[in-house]
Amino acid sequence: DETGRLRYWSVDERRELRERARTLDLTGVYTRDFEIIAPVVTRDLRILALGRTDGGVMLHDLDTGSVRTFPAHGAQVRNLAFEPDGRLLATAGDDGMLRLWDVGTLGLVRETALRRPLANEDFNLPLVWRTDPSAPRRRARMPRSSTGTSGTSPP
User: Fold this and answer.
1) What is the DSSP string of 16-53?
2) Cα separation of 107 and 88, whole Å?
3) If both were cysteines, with which of 21, 32, 72, 122 could 57 make a disulfide (CB 3.0 to 4.6 Å apart)?
C-alpha cells in the first residue's frame, strides 16, 4: 500500500497472513495514485524487485529484510520480469534499453535497444518471461490513450 506495507494472503484460507507482513522502504519508487508500478516477485516469494524513477532497481529479500539497490537504467524503470528460477532479472527503462541482470552478482548479462517504447506514459505493459521457445509469439495491443491513438509492443 502507500505506506510500503507488503501483505501476504492465503488464497485457500481467504485471510491475511499478518505474521509475514513487513514494511518496505519505497523511497524513489514510482507511484501513480499509490499504485506501485512494475513490482515483480520471484516464484519462491523470496525476492521482490521494484523499479525506480531514477533508473534504479530495488531488490528486497523478503526473508531477511535486506535491500540491494543498483543503477539499471539512465531513466525511469518501466518493466521488470524474473526468469522462472529467479536467477536473472529483465528490466526495461525509459532510456530505450532492455537489460538482463544476474540477481546474485547484480552484473549485466546482456542488453539490447528497444525498437520503440513498450507503452506510452499512461500505461505500463509487463514483461513476460517466455519459457517455451516453441510457443507462438503474440503482439500485445496497447490500450487507447487519452489522445485516441493505439499501438503494439514489439515481439
Assistant:
1) E-GGG-EE---TTB-EETTEESS-EE-TTS-EEEEEBT
2) 10
3) 72
Cβ partners under 8 Å of residue 100, min gap 6: 88, 89, 90, 91, 108, 109, 110, 111
How does pLDDT run across 91-119, given as a tens digit for each residue?
998 899 999 999 999 999 999 998 876 66
Mean pLDDT of all residues belonging to the chain: 77
Confidence (pTM): 0.72
In the beta sheet, which residues pair with residue 113?
97
Question: Which grid coordinates belong to 92?
Answer: 526495461
Grid cell digits, residue 126: 509487463
Q: What is the largest CA-CA distance in the chain?
A: 46
